[in-house]
Amino acid sequence: EAAGIDGIHWDVMDGIAVPSLTFGPAVIASARPHATVPFEAHLMIRDPDDLIEQVAAAGCTTALVHPDMLSHPWRTCQRIREAGMRVGVTLSPGIPLEDARWLLPLTDVLMIMTVEPGFGGQAYLTAMEAKVAEARRLLDGFEGEWELEIDGGVGPSTIAGAHAAGARTFVVGSALWRADSFTDALEACRAACEA
Asked: What residue ranges of the chain have pLDDT lower than 70?
């Protein structure tokens, strides 16, 4: 937070929907008193409905879900909204944009994955910039405001292409940890977008 991040993105994985297993709401809740920036939970979980209220209670203001991992996507999105959080719909590289279109009335954030979900440190998929641009056109064609976010392989050398395609929120993970300092990495990402 001192380095200038705008929020903290928590990757919650169940080892079923994706190969990795991470942490749950209790870990997020333990960090909440130590930060003032917003928290969002990226629920890479098959049918996460039972965790939604816990994620909200842990201090998250946004929950992101994958429609292809949900038995009842509309109901899950409604439950996120009822828990007082913003609703995020996430599309993996192989999932078409059309899968999110019908959820837009319930959605605040559309996140395009620029890697396959489940592991940090993967190489950014430049081909997804076309999907980001298509998503930008889709969102611009609807009344309302949506945040267009990307996640995966984002860093100073990749962020400009996603920004040019229309993304405005960026999940930066491994690039922060590999840099000499978080501040330097964030400044380099912002400079790349401004350029």
From this structure: none
Global confidence as pTM: 0.95
- Render pLDDT for 149-170 as a digit per residue (tens, 0 to 9): 999 999 999 999 999 999 999 9
Nearest of 2, 64, 59, 61 to residue 29 by alpha carbon: 59
CA nearest neighbour of 128 among 87, 74, 167: 167
DSSP letters of 100-157? HHTTGGG-SEEEEESS-TT-SSPPP-TTHHHHHHHHHHHHHTSSS--EEEEESS-STT
Contact assessment for residue 42 and residue 12, using Cβ atoms and an 8 Å cutoff: yes
Q: Which residues pair with 8 in a beta bridge?
A: 39
Q: Which of 108, 151, 180, 184 is catalytic?
A: 151
Token pair of 182 as six digits:
């978080």
Q: Is 11 a catalytic residue?
A: yes
Is 151 part of the annotated catalytic residue set?
A: yes
Q: Which of 55, 50, 52 is nearest to 32 (CA)?
A: 55
- At 105-129, the pLDDT tens digits run 999 999 999 999 887 888 999 999 9
